[in-house]
Specification:
The complex is a heterodimer of chains A (about 425) and B (about 350). By secondary structure, chain A is an alpha/beta fold. Chain A has helices spanning about 10-15, 115, 120-130, 145, 170-175, 180-190, 205-220, 240-245, 265-280, 310-315, 370-375, 380-390, 395-400, 410-415, 420-430; strands at about 20-25, 30, 40-45, 50, 55-60, 65-70, 75-85, 90-100, 155-160, 195-200, 225-230, 260-265, 285-290, 300-305, 325-330, 335-340, 350-355. The longest helix of chain A is centred in the middle third of the chain and has 15 residues, at about 180-190. The mean pLDDT of chain A is about 85. In chain B, about 65% of the residues lie in helices and about 0% in strands. Chain B is built from 15 helices and no strands. Classes of the chains: A alpha/beta (about 425), B mainly alpha (about 350). At the A-B interface, strand 15, strand 16, helix 12, helix 14 and helix 15 of A face helix 1 of B.
């Protein structure tokens, strides 16, 4: 059909009522020493060393930042093993054996409100940097880099839109801990000297708005914080789209949002900011859902970071049958494909979706232009495909393929089932060569 | 042992397909087919069947000949089956659409061999030579119609339900638009709307065409922008023409809109996505070119119907509109300025051309 595809069935209405299964006692926990944005890393503990909750156990080195790794349990360091990471790569993981005592590291002393009031912007950024916080909606972009800006900030937007289907990780945290998210927002507003705070949630879920508004009323908060409702379309949770619907400011693709006086942080990230500032603790737990047609009983978990996903699959009763499965870490539109279920819950993983294998037969392109109509960044996927087929670098550059955010809408909407998103990725790689 | 498959995101797809889109076009054509069969009985049935067979054959044979079976596949039967496996339902549905559109445009007494030859040749030359579905530059049905029109001109004498042998109403207005009120004495606007006039087999009933068009646009199997743009430009230029000759504006414009297969072309032919530009502004411009060309051919050309020619000439503009260096998926004021300037210029040309000064 020749139309702009804006809505995709999101499967959240069934998932959001699932009770949360608490699963916090895995025997062994795994901590990747490298990840997608940090290609190298090191540990600062030795085998057999006893570590406590919140203790620094290593550092990942990225291109322009370092990211500390914290333990989320107390116990003994056992060594290093190769495990799959949410990004799809096999990486070295530090193993910690859980002693089920959960002793807190002495550094994790809660800050008093007076202490927090005295924090300057530099202190604040340092705290976030030390807590190793990164975009917890799935992007993994280090938060302190985002906050380290000299531009005056007018708005801080808490992004609770979560437009990917199936994922309910953010939804759960917004329902269960709205006060903490608002606290995190207040801390960042104070630190950045931003007058306005906005919490963006989908129109489709009025209960989220209510949850935040109730929390705001209870907290008697002095700051100017509003809950705004965004549209239900995909990708409404894309930073630039969220800013547009929350503040009305149009940020061009490829520009930093801070240049326009706006900072966006995922709600889970703000929760992490609250933990780091108030309780001097890194994120140790997160909501993680295992769902999809290939799993016996889809469930939502609250788990410790470092938990092996195999344990969770077992809790869900395993796969429905022996047929080949497609494992997706993240959402079905932009998630990463995994070649094995031997991976671990990290800070940035939100869900595991198990699909049965499905084959789409590609047909000839009939130039219906549904991909052009649907593209949120206004590029022309069909022409990029034609240019990539003849390896025309000049045309690919002119067609601005690097603007593509790989949201997956072009593949999703194509009536000929052409995998345009993959072609966009290949075209980008081809341009880099 | 559980196995895992490698795929890349996105992992879900919309419930839509090319086949579904094409079947929608077929459904939209059904009222016209019924109308044609009702009006011309077996004259229409045979021509429909012949054209469908000719076009499907041309498409399927080309695809089967084009495919080279692997040398290891031996024996005529096996090689034939290997070639046959390259066919899909789309290779039947899409040529059938072209065939039906083609038959709806031709007169009911066009000799059968003419129908067969021009249908097969039209599809082969316009579509298969360029590489089949999705690769054609020209509308196959329009090419087939032009082949029949130019090569077998003597066959184009229309017969209506009231057996008035003779030209379609449009041929009579070559002289002057002012003659239209006189013409309307023999064919009322209501007759034109219902299709009770001589003309192509299916393209005369405006009512049924609009019905099919509504289905197409509601199902989104066609883009309304081209049709809308074309009809708006056409009507505006015809108003200017009517003013230029100091005629009855309303009657002239309605008459022009309802005759000569204009609506049929505007709804079923120009909306073919394969031969249309891919951006929204591009589709508006495409409609502009179409509208201007139809008016120019009707008023100043020798082929008074002009629709098929206008479509083919506009098809040639599509790669130009779509050229990657300037085609833009967003509307810009520059585009609308160009659109407006061309429109104003054409209004002036029509006005002066018809001696309005």
């Amino acid at each position: 059909m020749i139309e702009k595809t804006r809505f995709i069935p999101d499967g959240k209405s069934e998932r959001k009522l699932d009770p949360i299964v608490e699963y916090k006692e895995p025997k062994y926990l795994y901590f990747p020493t490298v990840d997608l944005k940090c290609p190298t890393g090191e540990t600062c503990v030795i085998d057999g060393q006893y570590v406590k909750v919140g203790e620094l156990i290593g550092t990942r080195h990225g291109a322009f930042f370092d990211q500390p790794i914290h333990s989320t349990v107390s116990g003994k360091v056992l060594g290093i093993e190769k495990k799959l990471h949410g990004s799809g790569d096999v990486v070295d993981c530090l193993i910690i054996e859980n002693d089920f005592k959960y002793e807190l590291h002495p550094d994790c002393e809660p800050r008093t409100d007076e202490e927090i009031d005295e924090l300057t912007k530099e202190d604040f950024i340092k705290i976030i940097e030390d807590s190793g916080l990164a975009g917890l909606g799935g992007s993994g972009f280090p938060t302190h880099v985002k906050f380290k800006t000299d531009n005056p900030i007018k708005y801080i937007v808490a992004n609770g839109v979560e437009c990917e289907p199936y994922i309910i990780s953010d939804y759960q945290i917004m329902m269960s801990k709205p006060e903490r998210i608002i606290q995190g927002l207040v801390y960042s507003m104070k630190a950045m000297d931003a007058p306005h705070g906005l919490i963006a949630v989908k129109k489709k879920y009025p209960e989220l708005k209510k949850s935040f508004e109730d929390a705001l009323a209870n907290m008697d908060c002095q700051m100017d914080i509003k809950v705004v409702q965004t549209n239900n379309h995909y990708p409404a949770g894309w930073e630039i789209d969220t800013i547009k619907s929350a503040t009305g400011i149009k940020v061009p693709v490829g520009k930093l949002t801070s240049e326009y006086g706006v900072l966006v942080a995922n709600v889970t990230t703000l929760y992490g900011i609250y933990r780091a500032v108030k309780r001097r603790m890194p994120i140790t737990e997160r909501f993680f859902s295992v769902c999809g047609e290939g799993i016996k009983e889809p469930k939502s978990f609250n788990v410790r970071i470092g938990t092996p996903v195999r344990d969770l699959i077992e809790k869900c009763g395993g796969y429905v049958d022996d047929k080949p499965k497609v494992l997706v870490c993240g959402g079905p539109m932009m998630g990463t494909n995994l070649q094995s279920d031997d991976f671990i819950v990290s800070k940035t993983t939100t869900s595991l979706i198990v699909f049965n294998e499905q084959e789409w037969i590609e047909e000839a392109c009939i130039h219906c232009a549904s991909c052009v109509y649907s593209c949120p960044v206004d590029i022309k996927p069909v022409q990029i495909m034609d240019a990539y087929k003849v390896r025309d670098k000049e045309a690919l550059e002119k067609l601005d393929v690097n603007r593509c955010i790989e949201c997956g809408l072009c593949s999703y909407t194509c009536p000929s089932n052409i995998h345009l998103t993959e072609i966009m990725r290949q075209a980008k790689r081809f341009l880099k060569r | 042992m559980q196995t895992y498959v490698k795929q890349t995101s996105p992992y879900i797809r919309k419930d839509t397909s090319v086949k579904r889109m094409m079947v929608d076009v077929l459904i939209a054509l059904i009222p016209l087919v019924i109308f044609a069969v009702y009006r011309f009985q077996f004259d229409a049935v045979w021509r429909l069947l012949l054209a469908v067979v000719a076009m499907v054959l041309a498409e399927c044979l080309t695809i089967m000949i084009r495919h080279k079976p692997h040398p290891r596949v031996e024996g005529f039967g096996a090689r034939f089956m290997d070639r046959f496996s390259k066919l899909s339902w789309l290779n039947v549905i899409t040529p059938s659409i072209s065939a039906i559109i083609f038959v709806m445009m031709i007169p009911s007494k066009l000799p059968l061999y003419v129908v067969f030859v021009s249908a097969g040749l039209g599809l082969f030359l316009a579509k298969m030579v360029f590489g089949g579905l999705g690769a054609n530059v020209f509308n196959p049905a329009a090419v087939a119609f032009i082949i029949a029109l130019i090569s077998f001109a003597s066959g184009f004498s229309y017969t209506g339900i009231d057996s008035i042998a003779g030209a379609t109403p449009l041929t009579a207005i070559g002289e002057s638009l002012n003659n239209i009120p006189n013409l309307l004495k023999s064919y009322s606007l209501f007759d034109l709307f219902m299709g009770d006039i001589p003309g192509g087999m299916g393209e005369v009933s405006a009512l049924l065409i609009l019905l099919g068009g509504a289905y197409l646009f509601i199902r989104k199997a066609a883009d309304y922008r081209i049709t809308l743009s074309m009809l708006l430009v056409f009507s505006l230029l015809m108003v200017v023409a009517a003013v230029a000759v100091k005629g009855d504006v309303l009657n002239i414009v309605l008459y022009q809109l309802l005759t000569g297969g204009l609506l049929f072309g505007a709804i079923y032919m120009v909306t073919d996505p394969v031969t249309a530009p891919i951006t929204k502004p591009g589709r508006w411009l495409y409609g502009l070119i179409l509208g201007v060309l139809v008016v120019l051919i009707r008023l100043f050309g020798s082929h008074v119907e002009g629709m098929a020619f206008a479509i083919l000439i506009s098809n040639m503009f599509v790669p130009l509109i779509d050229y990657y260096k300037w085609s833009n998926p967003k509307y810009t004021w520059k585009m609308w300025l160009g659109y407006g300037l061309v429109l104003v210029l054409m209004c002036v040309v029509v006005f002066i051309g018809l001696g309005g000064l």
